[in-house]
Amino acid sequence: MEIEKKDLMPLSFLKKERYTASFHGMRYFMEKKEEEGENHLLVACWPEPFAFAYTKEEEKSYKSFPFTEEGLEDARAYLMEEWERRKG
User: The whole model's pTM is what?
Assistant: First the structure.
């Protein structure tokens, strides 16, 4: 069981909208952020059942990736690592 590339929205979608999803007890979002003139893919994850706004900050994890196909794959791998860490 894992998050696969087909489960994520393409970069063309992420250019315009935040993508929010969940995976077996973990919620997450991906969105484009501009930092110092460069686009990055920001990923945040947190445990269910609450929405992002109602989850304690210390329960959230964030990581930024290049806004590229490789960055999207690295973000997918990061989410799987976080899920493995959190499920235990």
Answer: 0.92
